[in-house]
Protein backbone atom coordinates (compact mmCIF):
# COMPACT_ATOMS: atom_id res chain seq x y z
CA UNK A 1 0.00 0.00 0.00
CA UNK A 2 1.07 3.64 -0.38
CA UNK A 3 3.20 5.00 2.46
CA UNK A 4 1.59 7.56 4.77
CA UNK A 5 2.25 11.11 3.50
CA UNK A 6 4.22 13.35 5.87
CA UNK A 7 1.75 16.20 5.32
CA UNK A 8 -1.48 14.67 4.06
CA UNK A 9 -3.45 16.49 1.38
CA UNK A 10 -6.58 18.16 2.75
CA UNK A 11 -7.92 19.73 -0.45
CA UNK A 12 -9.63 18.27 -3.49
CA UNK A 13 -10.82 20.12 -6.57
CA UNK A 14 -13.68 19.76 -9.04
CA UNK A 15 -13.94 21.30 -12.49
CA UNK A 16 -16.59 20.88 -15.17
CA UNK A 17 -17.92 22.55 -18.29
CA UNK A 18 -21.37 24.12 -18.47
CA UNK A 19 -23.77 21.32 -19.43
CA UNK A 20 -26.93 21.01 -21.50
CA UNK A 21 -28.37 17.50 -21.53
CA UNK A 22 -31.36 15.93 -23.25
CA UNK A 23 -33.18 15.14 -26.48
CA UNK A 24 -33.00 18.21 -28.72
CA UNK A 25 -30.23 19.96 -26.76
CA UNK A 26 -28.02 20.09 -29.88
CA UNK A 27 -30.59 22.36 -31.57
CA UNK A 28 -29.78 25.18 -29.13
CA UNK A 29 -26.05 25.65 -29.68
CA UNK A 30 -26.51 28.73 -31.88
CA UNK A 31 -28.35 30.51 -29.07
CA UNK A 32 -25.62 29.72 -26.54
CA UNK A 33 -22.79 30.79 -28.85
CA UNK A 34 -24.57 33.99 -29.94
CA UNK A 35 -24.64 35.01 -26.26
CA UNK A 36 -20.84 34.93 -26.36
CA UNK A 37 -20.75 37.22 -29.41
CA UNK A 38 -19.65 34.40 -31.70
CA UNK A 39 -20.13 34.96 -35.48
CA UNK A 40 -17.99 32.35 -37.27
CA UNK A 41 -17.84 28.72 -36.14
CA UNK A 42 -15.93 25.67 -37.33
CA UNK A 43 -17.79 22.40 -36.73
CA UNK A 44 -15.29 19.54 -36.40
CA UNK A 45 -16.32 15.92 -37.11
CA UNK A 46 -15.32 12.66 -38.83
CA UNK A 47 -16.60 11.40 -42.23
CA UNK A 48 -18.82 8.63 -40.82
CA UNK A 49 -20.61 10.99 -38.46
CA UNK A 50 -20.85 13.58 -41.23
CA UNK A 51 -22.71 10.93 -43.24
CA UNK A 52 -25.43 10.77 -40.55
CA UNK A 53 -26.24 14.44 -41.32
CA UNK A 54 -26.01 15.50 -37.65
CA UNK A 55 -23.06 17.94 -38.05
CA UNK A 56 -24.51 19.80 -41.04
CA UNK A 57 -27.91 20.03 -39.35
CA UNK A 58 -26.29 21.47 -36.22
CA UNK A 59 -24.36 23.96 -38.40
CA UNK A 60 -27.53 24.97 -40.28
CA UNK A 61 -29.43 25.62 -37.02
CA UNK A 62 -26.80 28.15 -35.99
CA UNK A 63 -27.65 30.39 -38.97
CA UNK A 64 -30.89 31.38 -37.22
CA UNK A 65 -28.70 33.17 -34.66
CA UNK A 66 -26.61 35.01 -37.26
CA UNK A 67 -23.76 32.54 -37.06
CA UNK A 68 -21.85 31.39 -40.13
CA UNK A 69 -20.86 27.74 -39.52
CA UNK A 70 -18.65 25.51 -41.70
CA UNK A 71 -18.19 21.76 -41.31
CA UNK A 72 -14.71 20.16 -41.37
CA UNK A 73 -15.16 16.38 -41.62
CA UNK A 74 -11.52 15.26 -41.79
CA UNK A 75 -11.12 13.83 -38.27
CA UNK A 76 -9.24 10.52 -38.09
CA UNK A 77 -10.59 7.83 -35.76
CA UNK A 78 -8.18 7.49 -32.82
CA UNK A 79 -6.39 10.67 -33.99
CA UNK A 80 -2.67 10.93 -34.67
CA UNK A 81 -0.21 13.84 -34.70
CA UNK A 82 -0.48 13.80 -38.50
CA UNK A 83 -4.29 13.83 -38.59
CA UNK A 84 -4.49 16.56 -35.94
CA UNK A 85 -1.92 18.67 -37.77
CA UNK A 86 -4.03 18.45 -40.94
CA UNK A 87 -7.09 19.65 -39.01
CA UNK A 88 -5.08 22.47 -37.43
CA UNK A 89 -3.74 23.56 -40.83
CA UNK A 90 -7.26 23.52 -42.29
CA UNK A 91 -8.52 25.71 -39.43
CA UNK A 92 -5.56 28.09 -39.73
CA UNK A 93 -6.03 28.39 -43.50
CA UNK A 94 -9.76 29.04 -43.32
CA UNK A 95 -9.90 31.11 -40.10
CA UNK A 96 -10.13 33.19 -38.08
CA UNK A 97 -12.80 31.30 -36.13
CA UNK A 98 -14.61 32.72 -33.09
CA UNK A 99 -15.49 29.29 -31.68
CA UNK A 100 -15.33 25.56 -32.36
CA UNK A 101 -18.06 22.92 -32.10
CA UNK A 102 -16.95 19.27 -31.97
CA UNK A 103 -19.64 16.82 -33.10
CA UNK A 104 -18.51 13.23 -32.62
CA UNK A 105 -16.83 10.80 -30.30
CA UNK A 106 -13.60 11.29 -28.40
CA UNK A 107 -11.71 11.39 -31.69
CA UNK A 108 -13.56 14.51 -32.90
CA UNK A 109 -13.66 16.19 -29.49
CA UNK A 110 -9.92 15.67 -28.91
CA UNK A 111 -9.09 16.89 -32.43
CA UNK A 112 -11.15 20.04 -31.75
CA UNK A 113 -9.22 20.60 -28.49
CA UNK A 114 -5.93 20.47 -30.44
CA UNK A 115 -7.31 22.77 -33.16
CA UNK A 116 -8.45 25.26 -30.53
CA UNK A 117 -5.06 25.18 -28.78
CA UNK A 118 -2.97 25.65 -31.92
CA UNK A 119 -5.10 28.28 -33.62
CA UNK A 120 -4.89 30.47 -30.52
CA UNK A 121 -1.32 29.71 -29.38
CA UNK A 122 2.03 29.66 -31.18
CA UNK A 123 4.16 26.61 -32.01
CA UNK A 124 3.24 23.05 -32.88
CA UNK A 125 1.71 19.97 -31.21
CA UNK A 126 5.04 18.66 -29.85
CA UNK A 127 5.51 21.84 -27.81
CA UNK A 128 2.39 21.01 -25.78
CA UNK A 129 2.40 17.18 -25.67
CA UNK A 130 3.09 15.65 -22.24
CA UNK A 131 6.74 15.11 -21.30
CA UNK A 132 8.88 13.12 -21.96
CA UNK A 133 7.41 12.74 -25.48
CA UNK A 134 6.78 16.49 -25.91
CA UNK A 135 7.83 19.71 -24.18
CA UNK A 136 4.62 19.96 -22.02
CA UNK A 137 4.41 23.73 -22.43
CA UNK A 138 1.27 25.33 -20.96
CA UNK A 139 -0.69 27.56 -23.35
CA UNK A 140 0.20 31.24 -22.98
CA UNK A 141 -2.89 32.73 -24.66
CA UNK A 142 -6.56 32.09 -23.84
CA UNK A 143 -8.39 29.61 -26.06
CA UNK A 144 -11.67 30.20 -27.96
CA UNK A 145 -15.01 28.79 -26.77
CA UNK A 146 -15.32 25.07 -27.56
CA UNK A 147 -18.70 23.34 -27.48
CA UNK A 148 -18.38 19.53 -27.33
CA UNK A 149 -21.30 17.48 -28.63
CA UNK A 150 -20.63 13.76 -28.05
CA UNK A 151 -22.22 11.27 -30.48
CA UNK A 152 -20.80 8.20 -28.74
CA UNK A 153 -21.66 7.13 -25.22
CA UNK A 154 -18.15 6.69 -23.92
CA UNK A 155 -15.14 8.89 -23.39
CA UNK A 156 -16.53 11.81 -21.41
CA UNK A 157 -14.03 13.89 -23.43
CA UNK A 158 -16.64 16.68 -23.42
CA UNK A 159 -15.84 17.22 -19.72
CA UNK A 160 -12.11 16.53 -19.51
CA UNK A 161 -8.93 18.58 -19.79
CA UNK A 162 -7.08 16.05 -21.98
CA UNK A 163 -6.56 15.40 -25.65
CA UNK A 164 -5.28 11.93 -26.61
CA UNK A 165 -3.27 11.23 -29.76
CA UNK A 166 -0.89 8.76 -31.39
CA UNK A 167 2.57 10.08 -32.24
CA UNK A 168 3.16 7.98 -35.33
CA UNK A 169 6.93 8.35 -35.65
CA UNK A 170 7.46 7.17 -32.04
CA UNK A 171 4.64 4.57 -32.12
CA UNK A 172 3.34 5.96 -28.85
CA UNK A 173 -0.08 7.08 -27.69
CA UNK A 174 0.13 10.12 -25.45
CA UNK A 175 -1.71 13.35 -24.76
CA UNK A 176 -1.89 17.01 -24.00
CA UNK A 177 -3.25 17.90 -20.59
CA UNK A 178 -4.15 21.37 -19.41
CA UNK A 179 -7.13 22.89 -17.60
CA UNK A 180 -7.75 25.27 -20.52
CA UNK A 181 -8.44 22.38 -22.89
CA UNK A 182 -11.69 21.64 -21.07
CA UNK A 183 -14.65 22.49 -23.36
CA UNK A 184 -16.58 25.61 -22.40
CA UNK A 185 -19.83 23.75 -22.77
CA UNK A 186 -20.90 20.11 -23.14
CA UNK A 187 -24.11 19.57 -25.11
CA UNK A 188 -25.20 15.96 -24.65
CA UNK A 189 -28.11 15.02 -26.89
CA UNK A 190 -29.01 11.30 -26.69
CA UNK A 191 -30.83 11.52 -30.05
CA UNK A 192 -27.43 11.85 -31.75
CA UNK A 193 -26.22 8.54 -30.28
CA UNK A 194 -28.93 6.32 -31.78
CA UNK A 195 -26.91 5.81 -35.00
CA UNK A 196 -23.87 4.63 -33.03
CA UNK A 197 -23.01 1.12 -34.35
CA UNK A 198 -23.45 -1.71 -31.78
CA UNK A 199 -19.70 -2.47 -31.73
CA UNK A 200 -18.97 1.19 -30.95
CA UNK A 201 -21.67 1.21 -28.26
CA UNK A 202 -20.00 -1.88 -26.73
CA UNK A 203 -16.45 -0.58 -26.80
CA UNK A 204 -17.30 3.00 -25.79
CA UNK A 205 -19.53 1.62 -23.02
CA UNK A 206 -16.58 -0.33 -21.59
CA UNK A 207 -14.75 3.01 -21.51
CA UNK A 208 -17.57 4.47 -19.36
CA UNK A 209 -17.47 1.44 -17.11
CA UNK A 210 -13.69 1.62 -16.63
CA UNK A 211 -13.80 5.38 -16.04
CA UNK A 212 -16.31 4.82 -13.25
CA UNK A 213 -14.49 1.84 -11.73
CA UNK A 214 -11.00 3.32 -11.96
CA UNK A 215 -11.95 6.67 -10.48
CA UNK A 216 -14.00 4.95 -7.75
CA UNK A 217 -10.99 2.81 -6.79
CA UNK A 218 -8.36 5.51 -7.42
CA UNK A 219 -5.96 6.41 -4.66
CA UNK A 220 -7.79 8.67 -2.19
CA UNK A 221 -6.92 12.36 -2.39
CA UNK A 222 -5.81 12.42 1.26
CA UNK A 223 -3.15 9.77 0.56
CA UNK A 224 -1.08 12.31 -1.41
CA UNK A 225 1.44 14.79 -0.04
CA UNK A 226 -0.06 18.25 0.42
CA UNK A 227 0.30 20.28 -2.80
CA UNK A 228 0.94 23.99 -3.27
CA UNK A 229 -1.58 25.84 -5.47
CA UNK A 230 0.96 25.79 -8.32
CA UNK A 231 1.31 22.02 -8.06
CA UNK A 232 -2.40 21.22 -8.32
CA UNK A 233 -3.36 19.08 -11.33
CA UNK A 234 -6.86 18.34 -12.67
CA UNK A 235 -6.67 14.75 -11.33
CA UNK A 236 -6.62 14.69 -7.55
CA UNK A 237 -7.62 11.12 -6.59
CA UNK A 238 -10.95 9.73 -5.45
CA UNK A 239 -13.04 12.13 -3.38
CA UNK A 240 -16.67 12.49 -2.27
CA UNK A 241 -17.77 14.36 -5.42
CA UNK A 242 -16.19 12.01 -7.96
CA UNK A 243 -17.47 9.01 -5.97
CA UNK A 244 -21.01 10.22 -6.37
CA UNK A 245 -20.67 10.44 -10.17
CA UNK A 246 -18.99 7.03 -10.39
CA UNK A 247 -21.63 5.28 -8.31
CA UNK A 248 -24.45 6.77 -10.31
CA UNK A 249 -22.76 5.86 -13.61
CA UNK A 250 -22.48 2.23 -12.43
CA UNK A 251 -26.19 2.12 -11.58
CA UNK A 252 -27.11 3.43 -15.02
CA UNK A 253 -24.76 0.99 -16.78
CA UNK A 254 -26.21 -1.92 -14.85
CA UNK A 255 -29.67 -1.01 -16.17
CA UNK A 256 -28.96 0.04 -19.75
CA UNK A 257 -25.61 -1.11 -21.15
CA UNK A 258 -26.70 -4.48 -22.53
CA UNK A 259 -29.98 -3.06 -23.85
CA UNK A 260 -28.24 -0.21 -25.71
CA UNK A 261 -25.96 -2.71 -27.51
CA UNK A 262 -28.78 -5.12 -28.41
CA UNK A 263 -31.50 -2.60 -29.17
CA UNK A 264 -29.87 0.52 -30.69
CA UNK A 265 -33.21 2.34 -31.13
CA UNK A 266 -34.14 2.09 -27.45
CA UNK A 267 -34.17 5.76 -26.52
CA UNK A 268 -34.41 5.19 -22.80
CA UNK A 269 -31.30 2.99 -22.81
CA UNK A 270 -29.52 5.49 -25.09
CA UNK A 271 -30.42 8.34 -22.71
CA UNK A 272 -29.19 6.42 -19.67
CA UNK A 273 -25.94 5.54 -21.44
CA UNK A 274 -25.42 9.20 -22.39
CA UNK A 275 -26.05 10.16 -18.78
CA UNK A 276 -23.65 7.45 -17.57
CA UNK A 277 -20.92 8.66 -19.95
CA UNK A 278 -21.37 12.25 -18.80
CA UNK A 279 -21.38 11.33 -15.13
CA UNK A 280 -18.38 9.01 -15.36
CA UNK A 281 -16.59 11.77 -17.31
CA UNK A 282 -17.27 14.29 -14.55
CA UNK A 283 -15.96 11.75 -12.03
CA UNK A 284 -12.80 10.54 -13.73
CA UNK A 285 -12.11 13.99 -15.16
CA UNK A 286 -11.38 15.05 -11.58
CA UNK A 287 -10.32 11.86 -9.76
CA UNK A 288 -8.24 10.21 -12.52
CA UNK A 289 -7.90 6.69 -13.90
CA UNK A 290 -5.20 4.08 -13.34
CA UNK A 291 -3.99 0.60 -14.39
CA UNK A 292 -6.51 -0.42 -17.11
CA UNK A 293 -6.01 2.94 -18.85
CA UNK A 294 -2.21 2.79 -18.49
CA UNK A 295 -2.26 -0.69 -20.05
CA UNK A 296 -4.56 0.48 -22.86
CA UNK A 297 -1.89 2.78 -24.27
CA UNK A 298 0.53 0.02 -25.40
CA UNK A 299 -2.34 -2.31 -26.39
CA UNK A 300 -3.76 0.30 -28.76
CA UNK A 301 -0.37 1.70 -29.76
CA UNK A 302 1.37 -1.60 -30.62
CA UNK A 303 -1.43 -3.58 -32.27
CA UNK A 304 -0.21 -5.36 -35.40
CA UNK A 305 -2.95 -7.32 -37.09
CA UNK A 306 -6.31 -6.81 -35.41
CA UNK A 307 -8.98 -4.45 -36.73
CA UNK A 308 -12.09 -4.08 -34.59
CA UNK A 309 -15.31 -4.93 -36.44
CA UNK A 310 -17.76 -2.03 -36.77
CA UNK A 311 -14.97 0.57 -37.05
CA UNK A 312 -14.07 2.22 -40.38
CA UNK A 313 -11.03 1.36 -42.51
CA UNK A 314 -8.86 -1.73 -42.32
CA UNK A 315 -5.70 -0.56 -40.57
CA UNK A 316 -4.82 -2.26 -37.25
CA UNK A 317 -7.14 -0.86 -34.56
CA UNK A 318 -8.03 -1.75 -31.01
CA UNK A 319 -10.48 1.02 -30.09
CA UNK A 320 -9.89 2.87 -26.83
CA UNK A 321 -12.71 1.33 -24.79
CA UNK A 322 -11.84 -2.19 -25.88
CA UNK A 323 -8.14 -1.70 -25.12
CA UNK A 324 -9.00 -0.35 -21.66
CA UNK A 325 -11.29 -3.25 -20.80
CA UNK A 326 -8.98 -6.14 -21.75
CA UNK A 327 -6.83 -6.00 -18.61
CA UNK A 328 -9.49 -4.52 -16.30
CA UNK A 329 -10.65 -7.77 -14.62
CA UNK A 330 -7.05 -8.64 -13.67
CA UNK A 331 -6.22 -5.07 -12.68
CA UNK A 332 -9.12 -5.02 -10.21
CA UNK A 333 -8.06 -8.39 -8.80
CA UNK A 334 -4.69 -6.75 -8.15
CA UNK A 335 -6.08 -3.53 -6.60
CA UNK A 336 -8.69 -5.31 -4.44
CA UNK A 337 -6.58 -5.51 -1.22
CA UNK A 338 -6.04 -1.73 -1.22
CA UNK A 339 -9.78 -0.95 -0.96
CA UNK A 340 -11.88 -4.15 -0.56
CA UNK A 341 -15.11 -2.34 0.37
CA UNK A 342 -15.03 -0.13 -2.70
CA UNK A 343 -14.46 -3.08 -5.02
CA UNK A 344 -17.36 -4.98 -3.51
CA UNK A 345 -19.64 -1.94 -3.59
CA UNK A 346 -18.78 -1.30 -7.26
CA UNK A 347 -19.63 -4.91 -8.15
CA UNK A 348 -22.97 -4.65 -6.27
CA UNK A 349 -23.88 -1.53 -8.24
CA UNK A 350 -22.81 -3.00 -11.57
CA UNK A 351 -24.38 -6.43 -11.24
CA UNK A 352 -26.76 -6.65 -8.27
CA UNK A 353 -28.15 -9.98 -9.49
CA UNK A 354 -24.81 -11.80 -9.69
CA UNK A 355 -24.34 -14.61 -7.19
CA UNK A 356 -21.52 -13.59 -4.87
CA UNK A 357 -18.35 -15.64 -5.24
CA UNK A 358 -16.93 -17.00 -1.94
CA UNK A 359 -13.84 -14.87 -2.39
CA UNK A 360 -14.93 -11.17 -2.36
CA UNK A 361 -11.88 -10.31 -4.52
CA UNK A 362 -13.56 -12.25 -7.36
CA UNK A 363 -16.84 -10.33 -7.28
CA UNK A 364 -15.84 -7.33 -9.42
CA UNK A 365 -13.82 -9.37 -11.98
CA UNK A 366 -16.81 -11.74 -12.33
CA UNK A 367 -19.26 -8.86 -12.88
CA UNK A 368 -16.92 -7.34 -15.48
CA UNK A 369 -16.38 -10.61 -17.36
CA UNK A 370 -20.12 -11.17 -17.52
CA UNK A 371 -20.72 -7.79 -19.16
CA UNK A 372 -17.80 -8.25 -21.57
CA UNK A 373 -19.09 -11.64 -22.72
CA UNK A 374 -22.65 -10.37 -23.08
CA UNK A 375 -21.68 -7.46 -25.36
CA UNK A 376 -19.05 -9.26 -27.48
CA UNK A 377 -15.71 -7.88 -26.23
CA UNK A 378 -12.79 -10.13 -27.39
CA UNK A 379 -11.45 -12.72 -24.97
CA UNK A 380 -8.37 -10.93 -23.70
CA UNK A 381 -5.18 -9.40 -25.00
CA UNK A 382 -4.46 -12.63 -26.93
CA UNK A 383 -7.65 -12.26 -28.96
CA UNK A 384 -6.46 -8.92 -30.39
CA UNK A 385 -3.22 -10.44 -31.64
CA UNK A 386 -0.71 -10.36 -28.77
CA UNK A 387 1.27 -13.41 -27.55
CA UNK A 388 3.10 -14.16 -24.30
CA UNK A 389 6.30 -13.03 -26.04
CA UNK A 390 4.79 -9.52 -26.40
CA UNK A 391 4.21 -9.10 -22.65
CA UNK A 392 7.61 -7.45 -21.86
CA UNK A 393 6.96 -4.90 -24.60
CA UNK A 394 3.43 -4.20 -23.30
CA UNK A 395 4.75 -3.82 -19.74
CA UNK A 396 7.40 -1.43 -20.99
CA UNK A 397 4.72 0.70 -22.66
CA UNK A 398 2.45 0.71 -19.60
CA UNK A 399 5.33 1.69 -17.30
CA UNK A 400 5.74 4.88 -19.35
CA UNK A 401 2.27 5.95 -18.13
CA UNK A 402 3.49 6.85 -14.64
CA UNK A 403 0.98 9.71 -14.35
CA UNK A 404 -1.80 7.10 -14.52
CA UNK A 405 -0.09 4.30 -12.60
CA UNK A 406 0.56 6.63 -9.67
CA UNK A 407 -3.23 7.04 -9.30
CA UNK A 408 -3.64 3.30 -8.56
CA UNK A 409 -4.63 2.58 -4.97
CA UNK A 410 -1.42 0.59 -4.42
CA UNK A 411 2.06 0.91 -5.95
CA UNK A 412 2.44 -1.01 -9.24
CA UNK A 413 5.76 -2.57 -10.30
CA UNK A 414 6.89 -3.99 -13.64
CA UNK A 415 6.43 -7.50 -12.21
CA UNK A 416 2.88 -6.68 -11.16
CA UNK A 417 2.09 -5.49 -14.69
CA UNK A 418 3.72 -8.57 -16.18
CA UNK A 419 1.39 -10.73 -14.14
CA UNK A 420 -1.66 -8.64 -15.06
CA UNK A 421 -0.86 -8.79 -18.81
CA UNK A 422 -0.01 -12.49 -18.74
CA UNK A 423 -3.23 -13.40 -16.97
CA UNK A 424 -5.14 -11.17 -19.39
CA UNK A 425 -3.93 -12.99 -22.52
CA UNK A 426 -7.07 -15.12 -22.24
CA UNK A 427 -9.83 -14.06 -19.86
CA UNK A 428 -12.27 -16.93 -20.01
N1 LIG B 1 -10.13 13.29 -23.96
C1 LIG B 1 -10.54 12.36 -23.14
O1 LIG B 1 -10.85 12.62 -22.00
C2 LIG B 1 -10.64 10.96 -23.63
C3 LIG B 1 -11.10 9.97 -22.78
C4 LIG B 1 -11.19 8.67 -23.26
C5 LIG B 1 -10.85 8.41 -24.58
N2 LIG B 1 -10.40 9.40 -25.40
C6 LIG B 1 -10.06 9.17 -26.82
O2 LIG B 1 -11.27 9.19 -27.58
C7 LIG B 1 -11.12 8.36 -28.74
C8 LIG B 1 -12.26 7.35 -28.83
O3 LIG B 1 -13.47 8.03 -28.90
P1 LIG B 1 -14.91 7.28 -28.96
O4 LIG B 1 -14.81 5.98 -28.31
O5 LIG B 1 -15.89 8.25 -28.46
O6 LIG B 1 -15.14 6.99 -30.49
P2 LIG B 1 -14.63 7.67 -31.84
O7 LIG B 1 -14.75 9.14 -31.83
O8 LIG B 1 -13.27 7.13 -32.14
O9 LIG B 1 -15.68 7.07 -32.88
C9 LIG B 1 -15.74 5.66 -33.08
C10 LIG B 1 -16.48 5.33 -34.37
O10 LIG B 1 -17.87 5.50 -34.20
C11 LIG B 1 -18.42 6.34 -35.21
N3 LIG B 1 -19.51 7.08 -34.59
C12 LIG B 1 -19.46 7.81 -33.46
N4 LIG B 1 -20.67 8.27 -33.15
C13 LIG B 1 -21.52 7.86 -34.11
C14 LIG B 1 -22.91 8.05 -34.34
N5 LIG B 1 -23.67 8.70 -33.47
N6 LIG B 1 -23.43 7.50 -35.44
C15 LIG B 1 -22.65 6.78 -36.31
N7 LIG B 1 -21.34 6.57 -36.14
C16 LIG B 1 -20.78 7.10 -35.04
C17 LIG B 1 -17.26 7.20 -35.65
O11 LIG B 1 -17.44 7.68 -36.95
C18 LIG B 1 -16.11 6.21 -35.54
O12 LIG B 1 -16.06 5.42 -36.69
C19 LIG B 1 -9.77 7.70 -28.61
O13 LIG B 1 -8.82 8.39 -29.39
C20 LIG B 1 -9.46 7.84 -27.14
O14 LIG B 1 -8.07 7.80 -26.85
C21 LIG B 1 -10.33 10.66 -24.94
ZN1 LIG C 1 -11.04 6.14 -21.35
Automatic annotation (TrEMBL):
Family annotation (Gene3D superfamilies): 3.40.50.1970, Dehydroquinate synthase-like - alpha domain (1.20.1090.10)
Domain of life where this protein originates: Bacteria
Domain Alcohol dehydrogenase iron-type/glycerol dehydrogenase GldA residue range list: 19-190
InterPro entries recorded: ADH_Fe/GldA, ADH_Fe_C, Alcohol_dehydrogenase_Fe, HOT
Keyword GTP-binding among record annotations: no
Residue ranges of every copy of the Fe-containing alcohol dehydrogenase-like C-terminal domain listed in the record: 237-424
Family the UniProt entry places it in: Belongs to the iron-containing alcohol dehydrogenase family. Hydroxyacid-oxoacid transhydrogenase subfamily.
Protein name: hydroxyacid-oxoacid transhydrogenase
Taxonomic lineage of the native organism: Bacteria, Bacillati, Actinomycetota, Actinomycetes, Streptosporangiales
Amino acid sequence: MHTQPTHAETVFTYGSPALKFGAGAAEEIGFDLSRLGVRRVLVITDPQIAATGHPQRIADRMAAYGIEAHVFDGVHIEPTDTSMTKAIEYAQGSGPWDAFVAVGGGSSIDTAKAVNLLTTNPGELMDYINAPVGAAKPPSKPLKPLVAVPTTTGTGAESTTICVLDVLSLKVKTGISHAWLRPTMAVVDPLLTVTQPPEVTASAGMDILCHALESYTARHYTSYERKTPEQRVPYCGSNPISDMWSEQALRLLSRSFRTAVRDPENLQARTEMALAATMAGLGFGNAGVHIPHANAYPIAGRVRDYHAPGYPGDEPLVPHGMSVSLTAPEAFRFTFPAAPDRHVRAAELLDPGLERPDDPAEYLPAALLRVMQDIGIPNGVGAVGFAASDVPDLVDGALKQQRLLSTAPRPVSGEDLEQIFTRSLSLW
